[in-house]
Amino acid sequence: MTPELTALTLAALLQAVQFVLYAVPANLELGPGYTMSARDHEPSRPLSPRTARLGRAMTNHFEGLILFTIAAVVVTFTKITSPLTAACAWTYLAARILYIPAYYFGLRPGRSLIWGVGFAATLLMLLAALF
After folding, report:
1. DSSP-assigned letter for residue 81
2. How many C-beta atoms lie closer than 10 Å to residue 95's C-beta?
3. Alpha-carbon distance values, 43 to 8, 52, 61, 124 (Å)
4. ∠ CA(105), CA(106), CA(107), 5° rounding?
5. Whole-angstrom Cα distance, residue 118 to residue 96?
6. Phi, psi of 31 (to 5 degrees)
7. Cα-to-chain-centroid distance, residue 104
8. N or C: the chain end with fewer CB closer than 10 Å?
9. What's the pLDDT score for residue 31?
């Protein structure tokens, strides 16, 4: 497996970890009556700020994972993997790992800077595929 696909696999597993990190406190706060329902209405009370942040961080990773998946697949299947694309893949993964506590604790502007590093690494992989 290429380093880029290894990082992609780990990023997907990180997404599963993020789901658990969010789902457990959300279920405790909202109760199974709401979380197992069709959710046709808003919950009777909002999530705590930190639990809500975990949910937004998880959603953000789903969004970032789309572009990163494209980048990892393109560089792998075009056989242009290189030390640069491998470094970008590991940088993306590291940024996503750091993003979770940065978002949870509301670190500003650190959270946005970490996000930017991961996004830039993904874009660099895509550009490397073209040139």
Report:
1. -
2. 21
3. 34, 13, 24, 41
4. 95
5. 7
6. 85, 155
7. 13
8. C
9. 87
Q: Which has the closest alpha carbon to 70: 43, 45, 89?
A: 89
List, for residues 36-90, the tens digit of each pLDDT value. 788 787 887 899 999 999 999 999 999 999 999 999 999 999 999 999 999 999 9
pLDDT-derived band of residue 102, with 50, 70 and 90 as boundaries?
A: very high
Cα 35 to the center of its chain, rounded Å: 22
Nearest Cα to Cα of residue 90 among 128, 121, 129: 121
How far apart (Å, rounded) are the C-alpha atoms in residues 72 and 51?
A: 30
Strands (E), the chain: none
Residue 15: the pLDDT is: 98
Q: How many C-beta neighbours within 10 Å does residue 8 have?
A: 22
Separation in Å, CA 49 to CA 87, 112, 119: 34, 18, 25
